[in-house]
User: Fold these one by one.
Assistant:
Number 1:
Amino acid sequence: MNPRILKSLSILLFSLFLLPEVYAQLGKITIDLEKDKPQKFKTKTLKSEKTGEKKFTVPRRFVQNTVSHYNYFYNANNKLNQVIERARIANKDDYTKLLPFYGYSLDNTAAQKTDLDSVIYKATAGILLHDLRSNWVDNFYLLIGEAYYLRKDYDSASMTFQFINYNLFPHKKKDDDQLVVGTNENAENKAISVSSKEDRNIIAKTFTRPPSRNDAFIWQIRTLIDMDQTGEAAGLITTLQNDPAFPARLRPALEEMSAYWFFKQQMYDSTLAHLENSLPNVADLQDKARREFLIAQLFEMTNKQDEAKDFYDKAMHHTTDPLMDIYANLNKAKMLKSNDPAEIDKSIATLLRMSKKDKFQPYRDIIFFSAAQLALIKPDTAATVFLFKKSTFYNQENVPIKNLAFLNLAEISYKQKKYKDAYAFYDSLQLTDTTLGDIAKIQQRKNALAVIVGNINIIEREDSLQSIAAMTPGDRDAFIKKLSKKLRKEQGIKEGDSLYSNPAANYFDSKHASSDIFGNVTSKNGEWYFYNASLKSQGYTEFKRKWGKRQNVDNWRRASASGNAVANTANAFANPDDSTGNNNQLGQNADPLMAATVNPTAIPVQTDFSIAGLLANVPLTKDKLDESNKKVSKSLFQLGKDYQNLLEDYSAAIDAYENSLKRFPDSLYAGELYLNLSYCYRKLGDIAKADYYKNLLINKFDKSKFTQLALHPEAMEPSKKDPAATKRYEDIYNLFIEGDFEKAVALKKQADSTYGANYWSPQLLYIESVYYIRNRDDSTAINILKQIITQYPTSPLKAKAVTMIDVLKRRSSIESYLTKLNVVREKEDSQIVVYNDPAIIKRMQQDTSRMLAVHPNNTIITPGKVYLDSSKRAPAIAKNATFMIDPLSTQYVMMVLNKVDPVYSTEAKNAFTRYNSQNFYAQKIEVTKDTLDKDRTLLIFTEFLTADAAIKYMDNLKKAAPIQISWLPPAKYSFYIISGSNLDLLKQNKNLQNYIDLLSKKFPGKF
């Protein structure tokens, strides 16, 4: 047939779902397409339209079945399977996490829309171009439904499966079109049955597929689950499980749907019970291995180690994926029955044996990482560090695993207070990896350690240089000469190199040669660099001198310098003959000249390794020694402050402060040193020491500001405030919220003069700024909002403060624009009280009468809703002497604000309007402001079709409220649902508690 004709026929399929004239029985389907056919096809008659004009003889049946099968169904079915197979190949499972239920993504299948459209096209042509009495019509419809599902067109898929369910239902009598699906009139026993019996003869089993109606039930369940219609899916699953006519061939598929339903609900215990029974329904051996791996994971999550171990073993033997084989082996080794160290050692030994096998060599990073995790359980910190380092050594491309290894190493070093090591590991992290968790926290700790390590490096370097200066001249000269030779050798500088020769001679030589592209001196005859052995050797030496011997490791420059520092320190200071009596307590093993290279930003890196260059840094004069001590004193005190404030390591801070006090007793920093020591000792619970340094501070620095802080220690710790001050500020806060602005401002000034700025909160600052905005004192408001930005950078109110400042700066232009538009603004500064109104009472009575007329016996049949049991009733109506709640009637969401000034209630309305526009833009939810009485304001959110819909939106609103209206205390507001008639009645009688009681009775635990 002409391809254009076939293309036009594809649109006719949709009429099959819409026309009420469509009727069908098993083996007989009639379609009326005349009124919907395109004009140019009006005179053409399709094979499907000729159905019934001739007898369906055996030859005709054979021809129609054969052509339908091999010309259409076979090709369409193959293409559908190819779509799924490509999606499976494209899927990359992460075996470190719980696997998705299916081994392919619907996003991937939906991306193959062209092929799926082709399936729909071929199946449609197969229906319309052949006699509808053929045995393949129902199979074509199933292919269409599956294609719609894989396109993620869930509504169309569900309609197709429902069409198969209804139109292919087996009737006993030809004219019995009124038989209801789900009754027991067609069953010999009295059990309810909705399935089609599949008692087929040998010929039918050989040449045809089973009827697709029962398969459509399975696909309908899967579609409903993905549409989040879990209730409908559960009802259909239960019905089929108890259906005696449901075929045995589909029982594993039904078990799979049951497992999928529980999996989506994260009910993993129940998932396991059905998932094991679904194994016969897998596509192939690899799909079986994947499902066994998932079962093992679920057993592991439910602490059933033996069962998990068994299924990991099964997955290992069935899989063709080497990565799954690796993780099955790893996870099997980690299935510990207890935390017994002997058992952990046994599992670690198993993993280490795996690392030596050739087939596992590409995955040694994962193996050592898993072994390190086991050692961490033991715990064996030394083994953990060793194994994590082995993992990073073998890891070349697996960034998430490498990052986790470095993160674990960093945290272990941090807990051990090896802050230089911790910083090096944190610095090795790639912070673009979102799997690390809280990136901001990691970056914050890394930055803090960078500051601390910088100060440690300065102290160690200066102390080491002072140690060299304290040597006798002979010992010093011998030590510097030996050190220079060692460093030059490590940098690849030979003894005969003239890198430190006379500059004048170098300049003279340059006159007789020219520079090549590398900045080196070329020969006079212009010989190319790579052909000149002398120049290549010189370039190699220069590179080694400048960069050292590069290793194939992360952060090679810092790692090389750090390694050199350790080696140099061992050779220079561990030798008793070279002992210098170094008195540095923070860096006893510091390298004299190279320690700073661990943190290149702290101090300059030593590059001149000649004897003169090394001696230039040694403080041999009094001025240089004083300058060196000044650096140490400043860095030592700052180090203590960094330990105290950045890391809250009070023991390390005390060590630094005590060391500073011992070495530099005159450097007391106006008493701040005593104050910090007192604070740190108090944090550690040593009250005697804390009081000792507090008394020293008061006696020696009685006029210092630090003495005032010592007298008010709560001001040093804003997070733990004085109860009396906290109560005082909470009262001020409530005065602002309730609108008593003048009194609140006056009391706040008094409190601030007593307690300082430490007791300010972002919420208090925000509502204070709103007060000044109301009074059009924009400059004061902007200054207050800037305090929120600078003092509370992590507060949700920071973004609001930034936006508010921007609006205030453009306030005049915005108001001018609105004035020109002649917009009538809502009055914000007054509270409207609604009193008894006869019109309201009349409207309420009319709504109540209408409600009772619609639901006289609490029974409702929703149009378009199909019930398997025709006796289904609507949810019962709840009522008391005053109110009545119908869950199926339209409802509003109502927010009640108690004693909140109109300024802040209006601000709350604006906040939720913005929230709806960003998160529920498609629903166009409106927020209106109303009042209940002089103390209670109402925010009414657009009505919803049912109580369930309103409650679902209300739950989202509750979660968002602490951020959207963070300036309002939670005690000041509450959320409910309410119908229009109940709202009118509530505004008339004011009896909110009566309504809440009924609401709580109808929806327990929701209000």
Note: The longest helix spans residues 58-90.
Number 2:
Amino acid sequence: MDAYWDLLNAGRDAVTTMSPERQAVELSKSDSDAMHVIPPDAQGGYLDWIDKFDAPFFEMSPYEAVRLDPQQRVLLETVWEAVEDAGLTTDQLSASRTGAYTSCFASQYWNMLSTAGVHDIHALLGASRYSVAAGRIAHLLNLRGPALGMEASCASSLVAVHVACQAIQADEIEMAIVSSANLLLCRNLELSGADAGLLSPTLRSRFGDRNADGFVPAEGAVTVILKRLSRAVEDGDQIYATILGSGVGSNGTQTQSLTDLAVTGLQDTFDVAYRAAGVSPGQVDYVEAHGTGTPEGDMTELSALSNFLREGRSPEQPCLVGSAKSNIGHTAIAAGLTGLLKAVLALRNRVIPRTLHVCEPSAVFDREDSPIKLATAREVWPDRERPGIAGVTSLGMFGTSAHMVLTEAPPTVATPRRKPSGTEALLMPLSAKNPTALRQLATAYAETLETAEDPVDVCFSAGVRRTQHNVRLAVAAADRQSLIDELREFGSGGRALFPVGSANRTAERPRVVFVFPGHGSQWTGMGRELLAESPVFAERIAECDQGIAQELGWSLVERLREGTPLSAIDEVQPALWAIQVGLAAMWRDWGIEPDLIVGHSMGEFAAATAAGALSVRDAAMAVCRRSRLMRECAGNGEMWAVGLNEAQALELIREHGDSISVGVLNSAYLTVLSGDAAALAKVVEPLRQRGVFCRQVSIGFASHSAAVDPMLPAMRAHLAGLRPRAAEVPIYSTVVDRLVEGTELDTEYWVANLRQPVRFASAIQAVLADQQQRTVFIEVSPHPVLTNSVEDSIDIAGANAEALPSLHRNSPEMVSLLSSLASMYTHGYVPDWERVTPGGRYVPLPRYPWQRERYWVNPSDEPDSTTSAPAAGLHRQEGRAVDVDVITRQIKLRLAEVLAMSPDMIDPTVPLTFSGLDSLLAAKLRTRMQQELDLHIPIRDFLSNHSLNDLATRAHRTGYGPAS
């Protein structure tokens, strides 16, 4: 679109001879079609890459792509680009009442397929020009509105816009996608036009010129998206122009010939359009005419415009008239949308491009009082002290005429930002369907960020207004330049410092487990940045602060803002509890909801608060009173982390009785011993001499041992007022080593929480026991102290899981959080991007970088065979195939043959439909499985979410035999 406007605005002519690349496509046709091939010296508006297509993006197999008419290919690509430009996502469009309206000329590619002997159903579907193209778009985007192919000759695409607008106004649909494509693969149209005297012998379209002699053929594809203005404004969309009204009519018997135009018929159509728009003809500033440059056609159209636009017009303000066909040629069935797009861009830029190749304007313009003037020079849009108004005309060869009335888009109202621009940390999510495309996108986004008014808007748009594909990159940065540098490095082939991942869009989102650690993650300055940057965090901390102040008489908010060191246990533990509660609120505000919550020692207070089992007030009371009691008993024992498992630790302390306990079981490699300092010294020193990991836990108190017994009665008295309630999120207790409902978290539970060992490793192992779903553990703390232990358990279990921190000591807090959120995104979790980038506004983004490859039928292509020589069968033993790897390999080979692709291109872990398998090809594949491998796989299994590995595993287990 930008290139189209640059061409129009600069007054350039795109009509030329074929490029060498396009000639190569033409010369690849069969000899029998040679007489119809466009000669290399012919002039027109030609596209270069019509033989190329990004089939994998549209989950289309090479088999189908070769059979797909290039007109449908360019329609699919322009539709996707229009959807992206509109800031729509497939999730927003899916199941919506959105209509798809298309127009294409009859397939010339079908002749080439037929000559090559390709007559199968995919060739038929690929060549059909009517509703198949619209249905393909509706299927691609899961649209539930009408899918219609429109036919009104060269007026088709503008008639389609009219029909779509009527459906929107009648509330039949919410939105409409209107597309049209015209490609010239043979000379049939040119020969017919030349025979009728319609083609220009001078090879230029000279609309409005006294000596106009015909049009020049051209190729093109255009897609527009239509929506109610009120909704587009409400949604913050990028609005190019507003359609005020439209009209469609025909000649009837006003002309003697089917192909002649009638002045009165055109005027009737204009009248319908302007009455519908509520606009006086005298208000129109510019009309983009059909303007083919044929003598009769130009005279009829210009006469009708001159007659109609005279009403209410001052002679000093004539309506300018022009035609894009002078720049690019006649795109035939796509001409209406081509002209509409020119008018829209002219309104948007308030510039009327000049019409080319005019030496002497037509006699229609000679009259001094002529209400129309040919736009032979680039002009700034006339200033009428009102929004500009434009008309667009499109004429069909058989009497149908369409006219549309447009005005400028309303001025946008800036949405107030939550905070001044430039102060936020940034998170940029990017995704593609191909690793190469992802790197190209990174470079393009870096360039966009260079000139963007506000980088937050770019990040917002990338998350909220872009479809999220399966190959993903997310970059967190403290500022614009750091983000640009990271994107450029990745785009140039460098190593990504931030997560790059692949998310299977059919898989369930990862299971999320919030992990709240106990004492030890505190650091001076923690939370200060988040208090200033995150309203959600600040609000939650303020709630906690009230409870702490009531219990202990000091303000946590003041101490965090001032960076006051926290050293006493009744300062550290209430602060850690509040920070954890605030961080959990931030994660949930971003849309990361926990499926399970696990607390560790005093971290269970934050876990209970986050799960809703304890109110903020009750949790504050409990943690403050307990930590105050612990301060009074400070110095009563020590705690040491040692590199032993539970059995080794119990054997080590067996002779020390109650003086030493196994206080914490973090993983199979890390246990915390708790108890008498002198006794611990006797145990730890020999371990250190043997090189076993030993580190003192700086708490100054022997929790989870007999040393706490003297304070338990007082603790029962102080916590007697607790009123636990049912948890909103499941909690796995590290005290009783099972799920708890929340109501169990009464006074006695918290006494046991301090006295009994922390069975954290067991809790993580229980979570990992269910490996049906990927799991992400998020440590909700100011610094990771349990992440390594979680990773140890993951490694031992061989689980599909990952552990992420929230913050890091003395590191930028928001960037740390966003970095972990980036990992969540790359592994398939879709955050609430509007909450991640609050106050962001939609801005245009780089379009998707197509990874086109050649898909073209050749004369030497042989007719497809549905069967091949049987391969070695899968010998069965007691109904079971010998080896699952053999089955996988054999199925892959046949799938690759059916899809006409290399076996290496098939990912055995994703659904077969992602490789382009449809119901027709599935039937063919099923037949080959039966005949060659004696596998009787139902078609529904091919088309479900089963992957190749799934089918092979089931075949190995159940046999998929004739009786299955």
Note: The chain has five domains: 2-408, 423-506+828-860, 511-635+701-803, 637-700, 876-958.
Number 3:
Amino acid sequence: MARPQPHPTPVLLDFGEFELDEANACLMRDGQALALAPTPFLLLCVLARQPGSLVSKDALLDAVWGHRFVSDSVLKTAISDLRKVLGDDPRHPRFIETVSRRGYRFITVSPSPASTPPATMAVTAPGTPPSPTFIGRLDEVSRLQRAWERAGSGQKAVVWLAGEPGIGKTTLIEHFLAGLGGIACARGHCIEHFGTGEPYLPVLEALADLCRSDPTLQQSLREVAPTWLLQLPWLSTTQERDALRRELAGVGPERMLREFGELLDRYTELRPLLLVTEDLHWSDRATVQLINYMARRRGPARLMWLSSFRLAEVVALDHPLSSLRHELRLQRLCEEVVLDPFSETEVADYVALRSASLARDEAFVRALHERTDGVPLFVSSITSEVMDANEDETTIEARLADLAVPDNLATIIDHYIARLGPEQRTLLSAAAVCGADFRVETVSLALERNLSSVIGTCEELMREQVWLTQSRALDVDEAIEPPYSFRHALFRQVLYDRTPRKLRIDLHGQVGTALERERSAGVPIAASELAMHFDRARLPLIALRYYAEAAEAALMHFSPDLCIGLTERALILLMQAPDGPERDTFEITLATLQGVSAFHMFGVGSKAKDAFERAYRLLADVPEHPMRCRLLHGFGYLLGLRGDYSRALEVAERAEAFSLNANDQELMLAACIVQAEVHHLQGRTKTTRSWLERALAIAEPLGMGTNEIFATDPQVMLHGMLAIELVRSGLIEQGQTHMQKARNRAHTLRQPMTWLVATWQEVLIEVRLGNPVRVAALADDMQKLVDKYSLALGRTACRWWRGWADSHNGAPHDGYRHIREAYEEHTGLGMRSGASEVLGYAAEALLLAGDYDAAHIELQEAFRVGEELGERVYLAQLLLLEAAIARAQGRLQAGSASVRRAIEEARTQEATWLELLALVELCEQHDATIEDYRALRGLIDQLPETHGTELVKRAHALIKVAKSK
């Protein structure tokens, strides 16, 4: 290739104590000429010609070395030589600033009057004209600049950059960024996936990018966005990540949205931020949801979120981005910039960069425009194909006339594929299998080629500027060998599609095996990537292993939707695996993980139940399955929430049997918890206490906290549950002691889900003790936890308890509305556990409101649901409500009968506190016999821990009145 030609407008520039005179090949300092080799001198001229603008490494290599085969190390050496002459410290630059992984920028410029005129410079600030190497797009650049200006003033800007493949989206972004100078910018890009994409992939890449350039962000992540910190494992130690996982157990995916908003609010208080996410047509749903959240988030933020995508693919594939962009545009929450193909004038401008006279040839320009449809990538490809600096213009025109008209860009790429040598074609085919970005080490291992040979071929292909470029995915200074990426996704896709199917299958297997080797050596390779390769390699058993690992990792990182996508693909792939124990093992694992993730995403509906059922049926064939505890506890808990108590007990009994055979204490603990929960709801007080005491004896020595099986700390949960049963038994002081233990441990652990459960259990106690003020305070505490940590479990309960408290504190109509709305939402998700009690709250609110007929109807529904579910835990209180409604309606005899039924029910449940409550109610009706008063007196004597309670004070007053008569 020819040596680069001198620029038509030589640089004449004063900067600092230096004077640069390109025409006379002279660099002077304080009037004295400096010795500078030709290459560093030319490099300085190229940089100085674009003051304040980023000049990419590729552009510098082209401008200084032409298209000769050189590597980045040559550029680094020349920059180093230049800095030595200028006395420039790279850590505190005065003149040459490194832009990590991208290129260099010439700074601190004070041009002399005779310096390069502005028309030859690149964009240096919003509002200035574009560089001559950037064609057209004046309006589009102006719109982006105006959006950035708005963002800088605190008006958040969400901007879509839409266009077809090859239209110049990335080029426009690069040009726009180059004109902004040293701003805070974070970039990430989506990549094409097989199946479900990794949640937030482009955003995580952008955050990682920003953390490398601004270490202060790491502290902000720790303080306000721990769920995001967990997604960036290299920013914390293993111990820190484990502690974070325990702390964030039970946190919903919605928490990540709010944390991200708070993180950017804090960050942009100090500086405006440009967040760039490219190729959103390949994005996951979580990223689209995050953009939606940020666009609608209220309050000022100095943020511009610029995203690019292929318009046709978004519309044709019914991508979630399609509807979102319309919604946000209608609500004026975003701006969309659509790139059109080049006009004939713009094609002429592009040709002028190579030949001014050809650009004036209308026939040539028109023919080039017709053959390329004005698509910039087509224009560039065809121009490079037909133009040669050593040929005259007549020859060039003839070559264009003879060139076959391509049907589409794939035809052009096929032409380039045909020109590849065998070694290049094999290497690029393997690279295409790796993905848009690839490591040379992976390709070397996959093809069993010498690493230096692979690097040499990649460098050669990169210098040709057709196939490869330096990847943005990783800082080259941080890797043994720099990663590469395909210059355009279409080039990679066409090459992948043109690789023979059998060879492609083999290459996926070879790449997967290579990645396994790299992973074993410590290279962070995602399990989902390995699963994809072995899936496409038709190696189902290996693929299933990695799908299971990837699905579990997704759950650990608050991505149940990704877990569902991975397990769904894996369960389809399972059909290709041979029958046998190994297949059954994988099926149990995948179905269990799907059940857990479906529970997080959709509640206790049929999707979660069916998945658990599928795994449960197979467990008899694989009784030692490592996930059996998770399965049995999860399935039993789900069945309990659905109100299917008999099935839940069956699962618990099976867990107990497994645990006895294997001496598995963790499994026994799970069995005890399910047994206790079901027996509590069925009103078996002493039986429940027995299971809880047994569970505590197991849990305390184990010292187990939250993990993948127990989303809340077992000891906290068990102490709280035992406290409820002790209060029901009239052992108030013992109950309060256990509740205090639960509170103390929850406070020490500082786990939101555990604290929520402890608060939930304390509310149940206060409801039974009849303390509406305390219930209101606890319900508000629950609401704060639910809102702060996106804890789906308490979203409805905190509202019905607030409604119960409001009803007793003078607002029964509002209370009823809150209770009923929360109940409808709760049962709408398939959760019926405790339904009869909540309906009792609603009936009580209507009673307090004086609407006795409506209260009676609500109460009858509570009885019906309780009977249907076999739920008796609140039956005594429901009977007392029935008595109160009957008395209010003047049906005194019916009221007395209901109270006596409540007494009998409390005795059947061995719930002496409820028996005491019912006896007090009976005596207050003035319908009690001498035997009733004796029973009340005897019960008070049996329950010394109740002394001092308001209920016992009422009882003593009644007995005193009875004696006086």
Note: The chain is about 65% helix and 5% strand.
